[in-house]
Amino acid sequence: MNAINLADKLATFAEHWQPRVVGQFNGHDLMVVKVKGEFVWHRHDDTDDFFLVLSGRITIRLRDGDVSLGPGELFVVPKGVEHCPVADEEAQLLLIEPTGTPNTGNAATAAPRHIV
Amino acid sequence: MNAINLADKLATFAEHWQPRVVGQFNGHDLMVVKVKGEFVWHRHDDTDDFFLVLSGRITIRLRDGDVSLGPGELFVVPKGVEHCPVADEEAQLLLIEPTGTPNTGNAATAAPRHIV
């Protein structure tokens, strides 16, 4: 069993909004992702949505206001709450979601799960 | 709803091995903790144990070897696996465990849950 180095995992890919699974925890996928630009408005009816910023900055738009996050800051979007992540410049994040959760809230439009 | 700044939360206390709850995620507590020295050997029969190092270094001793972690590295101790975290110098961690999990694996010896 080895430590998971998040920077090393992030160095293996360049695509934005394409999370990579780096580990598992209690039925959840631990994922790193690079983001830039605006994602889509979506919600997850069955799960909270965990964001921890590793580098860069993101804004999580909510229908009743924005939450701005920098390195070392986290935010949990409660289940059922619509949100739209946005990053002016590239940011790198740790995400946690139950294994199989579509990142757009919709299996038809979700990114495939890549494991690194 | 606001971002949770982990460094700000860590600045509110000094005690070692006394996790502070900073948020909730899918029935889990998100916690920050300062550690130094050797904890106790323990296991959690019902949950994996998530460690992400924010600063410093820790070693997670396992019965079949050690895992060493620095900043930006994470490790998940599988449920039921005995482990003993150790830090030669102070380290700061993000921990995730189901709400109510005793940090020693035993309610009688666990640290109380503080919320910051």
Description of the molecule:
Two copies of one chain form a homodimer. Chain A has one helix and nine strands; from the N terminus they run βαββββββββ. The first copy, chain A, is mainly beta. Chain A has a domain at about 25-100: Sandwich (Jelly Rolls). In chain A, strands 2, 3, 4, 5, 6, 7, 8 and 9 form an eight-stranded mixed sheet that branches. The longest helix of chain A is centred in the N-terminal third of the chain and has 5 residues, at about 5-10. The first copy, chain A, is globular and about 45 Å long. The two termini of chain A are about 15 Å apart. The mean pLDDT of chain A is about 95. At the A-B interface, β1, β2, β4, β6 and β7 of A face β1, β2, β4, β6 and β7 of B.
User: According to CATH, what is the topology of the domain at 26-99 in chain A?
Assistant: Jelly Rolls
The CATH class label of the domain at 26-99 in chain A is Mainly Beta
Q: What is the subunit organization of this protein?
A: homodimer
Largest sheet of chain A: 8 strands, mixed
Strand content bin of chain A:
over 45%
Poorly predicted runs of chain A are none
User: What do we call the CATH homologous superfamily of the domain at 26-99 in chain A?
Assistant: Jelly Rolls
CATH architecture of the domain at 26-99 in chain A: Sandwich
Spatial gap, N to C terminus of chain A: 15 Å
Overall geometry of chain A comes to globular
Please give a handful of descriptors for the protein shown.
homodimer; 116 residues; mainly beta; Jelly Rolls; eight-stranded mixed beta sheet; 1 helix; 4% helix; globular
